[in-house]
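Renewal narrative, Specific Aim 1. Our central claim is that a sequence can be written position by position from structural information alone. The example that follows is taken directly from our test logs and has not been curated for this report. It begins with the structure tokens describing the chain, in the order in which they were read.
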């Protein structure tokens, strides 16, 4: 969805800059499919284990907002988390 002319666009852009230092430094972060392949190649599986991959469509619409906001308060400061909360909970972005 193109949101460049939305009321929260400038705020979302500012928040993205504020969060960029922590993105990529979280254990569960996978940048792209090439990064995933690099990570998965290092894994050793037992004979009774399987790798199952899901193709996720519209991931951002499936994220539980309350849980995401709670995590943001844990990993960043209250001001940044509140700004993200405003962006995520604005009617323009509600799913």
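The sequence written for that structure reads:
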């Amino acid at each position: 969805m193109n949101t460049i002319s939305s009321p929260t666009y400038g705020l979302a852009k500012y928040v993205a800059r504020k969060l960029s230092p922590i993105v990529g430094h979280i254990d569960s972060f996978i940048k792209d499919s090439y990064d995933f392949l690099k990570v998965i190649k290092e894994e050793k599986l037992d004979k009774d284990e399987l790798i199952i991959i899901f193709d996720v469509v519209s991931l951002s619409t499936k994220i539980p907002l309350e849980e995401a906001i709670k995590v943001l308060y844990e990993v960043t400061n209250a001001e940044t988390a509140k700004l993200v909360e405003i962006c995520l909970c604005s009617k323009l972005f509600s799913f």
